[in-house]
Design brief:
By secondary structure, this protein is of the alpha+beta class. The protein contains 4 helices and 15 strands.
Amino acid sequence: MSDDKNIIEEPIAFYGQLDQSKSYTYTDYMKWQFDERVELIKGKILKMAAAPSRKHQITSGNLHFELSTVFRKNKCQLYSAPFDVRLPISGTSGIDTVVQPDLCVVCDEAKLDDAGCNGAPDLIVEILSPSNTRHDLKTKFELYEEVGVSEYWIVSPWDKTVIVYYLKEGNYLGSKFYTEGSTIQSIHFPDLKVDVLGVFEGVE
């Protein structure tokens, strides 16, 4: 009689080997050896775009520059994708949610390790693209609100707008739409002020 305990599970080398109906954990995620980028949302797989668009890349670079000028002066640290953020969900055993925000700021050094961030960042920025609009506007909005991300920026290179959501008593409240000619004012970081024109400089 064979002993199931002695069976060695082969690592998954191709995205197509994943069972889309199955729930996975961070332990599973760390064993995968394929090139495709994925996120786990409460155990379910979400395949990310193979490569961001040029508009996305320009906007991300501009935002990284703008935010780095502020956060390099204090203890908070700025990271850009790919960067794993593990989010333990209340009522579950273990970590079954791993996301890769376009940009995130972490102020609690205890949450950082060699694998990324373990816990909710203080600020997350997601840049919209045609393939991820619903995901960022609904799925991630609800997720970041649930785990306590203090501030969530949604940036649209397509209509050159930014909206800032900030956490108050466990729920997100939204700012006006920031457009070219206005200045983004962070709620939780008073020193963080970003000219919208600079965010979308070079985006045609």
